[in-house]
Amino acid sequence: MESNYRAGNLFADVPTDLSNETFEDIVRYQGVVIERITSLGHRTSEDSWYDQPQHEWVMVVQGSARLLFADGVELALQPGDYVNIPAHCKHRVSWTDPDQPTLWLAVHYPR
Amino acid sequence: MESNYRAGNLFADVPTDLSNETFEDIVRYQGVVIERITSLGHRTSEDSWYDQPQHEWVMVVQGSARLLFADGVELALQPGDYVNIPAHCKHRVSWTDPDQPTLWLAVHYPR
């Protein structure tokens, strides 16, 4: 029997220094990454895009944010809102709430 | 440019008929499954265990639940509480809230 389960809470120990957006691994295993991202008013720099080699599924758990896609569509995200973003689907974070931390849960998985 | 992103909300369209626990795929891709599970008082039948060939990371998003492991440890889960459960780590759902739907987010990923 293997029983090394590992527990935590997504709302626990939110970084207090949010001068930079933070990325914290929850699970990292053979190309699959589950991470918590904490934003506070951060957005992707003006003329750059995420163009990722892996697929990403991302959900806002707390706070609010906006995602802009290269086709011009902008999605406003509230808690529970998720987006599945295929590899190389260009996107940027166009806004996150400056008044409270926005917690994202992201799952990166291989092509 | 690939831009077939796909959006949804984890709290949307919760099944109204919860006579059975429900399992709904959000993403299913090459051995990785992201799913929403909705429970309403359901638990694993008394003398059976989940003994899964894949790893599972699971988080309670709404409601509350208890997970029992074969080593006798029982975890009480509230929103935001998550557990990473290795493949073949035997566990059972020993309790879920009978008064409100409990929403779980589960990520199954290959060994």
From TrEMBL, chains A, B:
In Pfam terms, one family for this protein is Cupin_2
* Gene3D superfamilies (alphabetical): Jelly Rolls
**Which SUPFAM superfamilies would you find in this protein's record?**
RmlC-like cupins
Which InterPro entries would you find in this protein's record? Cupin_2 (IPR013096), RmlC-like_jellyroll (IPR014710), RmlC_Cupin_sf (IPR011051)
- Superkingdom field: Bacteria
**Which residues, by range, are in coiled-coil regions?**
none
Q: Which residues form the Cupin type-2 domain?
A: 50-107
Q: What is this protein called?
A: Cupin
What species was this sequence derived from? Pokkaliibacter plantistimulans
